């Protein structure tokens, strides 16, 4: 079943639609949440995943399939809910993350995202891909190290250097290998 059909099921029969969404994407959401909340109990992780699906139920009408997918929408929700919960559980001062994902992102936000993505792509391989795996997909450094056959501390060093290079690119500076 593709995303368009799944959204139609959600509109016609929300209970059945949510059952299908949960069947298809619980593993993904659980994986993302667990990466962020690894230091907390399984109950906290499961409760956070439940919060993800509740938020999805209230916001699925905002999904624009021309700009993204249900999988991407749920991945973003999972990361946001997990970070919010981590801040709450860790006793950190919370800065409210945007609670809703709206289909009407401003043109300025879209341009900012594109500029950032272009700067990351300018790094080339593997540095650009390592940054995407770390910050977009939420992979831990250890997993990235396994993918590239590197030591975890080498991956962390590449991430630090790559972030500095992206900053230099965004500030209009020239990026030299150091």
UniProtKB/TrEMBL annotation:
Pfam families: Sigma70_r2, Sigma70_r4_2. The keyword Aminoacyl-tRNA synthetase does not apply. The keyword DNA-binding applies. Keywords: DNA-binding, Sigma factor, Transcription, Transcription regulation. Residues 114-165 form the RNA polymerase sigma factor 70 region 4 type domain. It comes from the Bacteria. Residues 24-89 form the RNA polymerase sigma-70 region domain. SUPFAM superfamilies: Sigma2 domain of RNA polymerase sigma factors, Sigma3 and sigma4 domains of RNA polymerase sigma factors. One of its GO terms (biological process) is DNA-templated transcription initiation. One of its GO terms (molecular function) is DNA binding. Belongs to the sigma-70 factor family. ECF subfamily. This is RNA polymerase sigma-70 factor, ECF subfamily.
């Amino acid at each position: 079943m593709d995303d368009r059909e799944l959204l139609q099921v959600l509109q016609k029969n929300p209970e059945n639609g949510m059952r299908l969404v949960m069947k298809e994407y619980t593993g993904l959401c659980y994986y993302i949440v667990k990466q962020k909340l690894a230091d907390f109990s399984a109950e906290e992780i499961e409760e956070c995943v439940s919060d993800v699906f509740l938020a999805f139920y209230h916001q699925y009408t905002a999904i624009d399939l021309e700009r993204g997918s249900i999988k991407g929408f749920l991945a973003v929700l999972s990361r946001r809910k997990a970070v919010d919960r981590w801040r709450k559980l860790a006793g950190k001062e919370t800065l409210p993350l945007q609670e809703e994902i709206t289909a009407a992102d401003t043109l300025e936000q879209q341009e900012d995202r594109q500029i950032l993505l272009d700067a990351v792509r300018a790094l080339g391989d593997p540095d650009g891909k390592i940054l995407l795996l770390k910050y977009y997909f939420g992979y831990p450094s250890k997993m990235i190290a396994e993918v590239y056959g590197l030591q975890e501390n080498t991956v962390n060093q590449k991430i630090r250097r790559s972030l500095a290079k992206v900053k230099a690119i965004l500030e209009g500076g020239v990026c030299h290998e150091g």
